[in-house]
Write a structure and sequence with these properties.
- The chain is about 40% helix and about 20% strand.
- The protein has about 280 residues and is α/β, with parallel strands linked by helices.
- Helix 8 links the parallel strand 12 and strand 13.
- Helix 2 runs parallel beside helix 3 and helix 7 packs parallel to helix 8.
- The N and C termini lie far apart (about 35 Å).
- About 45% of the residues are buried.
- The structure holds ligand RRO.
- The site of ligand RRO has 12 residues, from loops.
């Protein structure tokens, strides 16, 4: 989603507080062959393959959307420091309110995890981007690592403004009749309800070990899910797969559900919930 102004406008109209773009790279990219997305019992499995129009063309989409006033978080992926700096600079020029460095796609050859697993490289990328632009820099980290806290700390050392946790969990679905993985790429990233406990655990661990804010994402479908992430230490949350399950009105619905829960339980501010599970 969010590869073009139309889909982003729709999310904005439906009450999203900010919009994270599809991850954008240096060149246009078609993505993997179909099948690229499967609905499984408890979530979605995707191997889209970073399809995007490339940073030059993408500027037009952001410009079309600028009228909506909803902050845009420009998600970017690169193969090296130079590419991340160039992409972030463009996103700032286009008017993005922040950039999100995607160093965590589970099936992006040369991009994604190759970058996001190397703490030294990650710190260099983040600090180089930070020196170049003036808008906040978020770093989206992967659960498919031995120690997600180390990765988040490397981003913090590079002066990241926030950590976004988590990207999808690496998975596979095999068709019994043909005895083959169904996705053309064979492996993919699992999202939706099934991964919420993994995301909550990652946010909890990261929040305990970094000083910068954490943005929680992974399986948030209801207000209760968002509150769980707040209690784990998230200051804000992102919603992706739930748009598929509940439609684009999910943003308003989740906000209303959070408000009702807070009223029922005597909470006045979201900040009173943030990190409550650590006390
Ligand atoms: O495009 C994708 O296949 C993709 C990306 Br960029 C990502 O960050 N996470 C994911 O599950 N899929």
């Amino acid at each position: 989603m969010d590869e073009d102004a139309g889909s982003m406008q729709r999310m904005s109209d439906c009450g999203a507080g900010a919009i994270v773009t599809k991850s954008i790279g240096m060149q246009p990219k078609e993505g993997y062959a179909n099948p690229t997305l499967l609905e499984l019992e408890f979530g979605l499995l995707n191997a889209m393959g970073l399809p995007n129009p490339g940073i030059e063309l993408y500027g037009q989409e952001i410009k079309k959307l600028k009228k909506s006033k909803t902050p845009i978080i420009g998600s970017i992926f690169g193969a090296n420091t130079k590419e991340f700096v160039a992409l972030a600079t463009k996103m700032e020029q286009y008017g993005a309110a922040a950039v999100e460095l995607n160093v965590s796609c589970p099936h992006a050859k040369r991009y994604g995890l190759e970058v996001g697993c190397d703490t030294t490289l990650l710190q260099t990328i983040v600090s180089s981007v930070k020196k170049q632009i003036h808008i906040p820099v978020f770093v989206k980290v992967s659960p498919n690592v031995v120690n997600i806290v180390e990765i988040a700390q490397a981003a913090e050392k590079g002066n990241a403004d926030a950590i976004v946790a988590i990207n999808t969990v690496k998975g596979m679905k095999i068709d019994l009749e043909i005895a083959q993985p169904i996705l053309a790429n064979k492996t993919g990233g699992y999202s939706g309800k099934a991964i919420k406990p993994i995301g909550v655990r990652c946010v909890y661990d990261i929040a305990q070990n970094v000083k910068i804010p954490v943005i929680g994402v992974g399986g948030i479908t209801t207000g209760d899910d968002a509150i769980e992430y707040f209690m784990a230490g998230a200051s804000a949350v992102q919603i992706g797969s739930a748009v598929y399950y509940r439609g684009p009105d999910v943003f308003k619905s989740v906000c209303n559900e959070i408000s009702v829960w807070m009223d029922d339980h005597g909470y006045k501010k979201i900040t009173d919930l943030v990190g409550a599970a650590h006390q």
